## 1
Amino acid sequence: MTTLRDETTRTGARPVPASTGTAATRVLGGVTLLALGVLLYLAFVASPAAGPSQGFDAVRFMYVHVPSAWLAYLSFAVCALCSALYLWRRTRSRFWDLLAGASAEVGTLFIALTLVTGSIWGRITWGVYWTWDARLTTTAVLFVMFLGYLAVRRVALDVEVRSRRAAVVGIIAFLNVPIVHNSVQWWRTLHQEPTVLRTDLSPQIEGLMLYTLLFGVLTFTLLYAWLVVHRFRVAWLEDRLEAAGLGRAIAERRAEAGLDEDPAVEGVPAPAGPAPDPSGPAGRTTPEVTAP
């Protein structure tokens, strides 16, 4: 099996790392793991239970459910911003396209976690896992829209065409985020109104519960950063592998056709000097003929 390192070595392209990890990402991962441990203790041991309206101990789902939703919003905002930067000619770069895709994948994971924890919490407090509530419905639509975005990124098209189409879909899908957030205020809904991000700037929880929730948001932000960095690097390696494979395929097709190798193909050496004369002795070349 040919690896990316083997491919780039054979073609002469710049070497690429064999791992997506660095000293910085290992430190970030360690801090994130430690923060997750502290969050679990605060959420399930130290933090007090809520009242009967919030299901007593079921409120502990809030410390995972709410940070997941907030980080999904952040992920999709980053995706939309990077997509816009990719569409703008002055800033168009594969960096923005790959970062948009990485952030969208992590955001889709967070929104899925939001739906799962919300359904379990709803079963305890509402008596059902799912109802076509405005908040739940718009969140499910957001999840499906970004699944569609990820599907567009896998369509077999020219890279630039595919990236432009995905960028447009990413920006359109992000427009659903403010609808999801404001759905509990625009329509009658079973879902409670915002607990912290309220228009009157008066959180409905305080003390250790508020501290634990905010610490959960910080922890999930660290987790988001760690996941995006690694997913971006994997996407970059995949992009390099695809480019190296394309260059090799073009060189092989030209060799089969008996043509000179194309010097424009990355990693493929261009022929040096005039072509040798097959009818003459070895090392003799055909002199260039010019018009009188």
## 2
Amino acid sequence: MNTGSDERSEVESAGKAADSQDEQGLGSKAPKFIKSRRALHLSWQVGVFVVGLAVVVAGIIMLPLPGPGWVVIFCGMAIWATEFVWAQLVLRWTKRKVTEAAQRALDPKVRRRNIILTSIGLVIIGVLLGIYVWKFGIVMPWKINE
């Protein structure tokens, strides 16, 4: 994949193209009949905020518990981004950072380093496990003989 091109400039130019497209779409995505009435639009925004908040809180709860915590948090941010510009900007920044991280992860040098470090870690764990079994044997915490 290394063709001698500057990958950062490619990522930045792709990001700038996406930014110019997103600039037009900033703001509320509410239907026109809701936008036309101020009170209805305000209640729509409150509803979107409450639903997004519930999803984000559920994601935060899932971080230490089993469940896809970060995915749910980003879904809550996407719900907020349908109505609020600040959430659209945060979501755009997050997408850009994830894209940059994916590009860096595909770099052959980084992949090779990660594979080597993982292999070394597995060898160390195997050696420590072998020493433990050699010294103490395999003893189950429950009584199988009874």
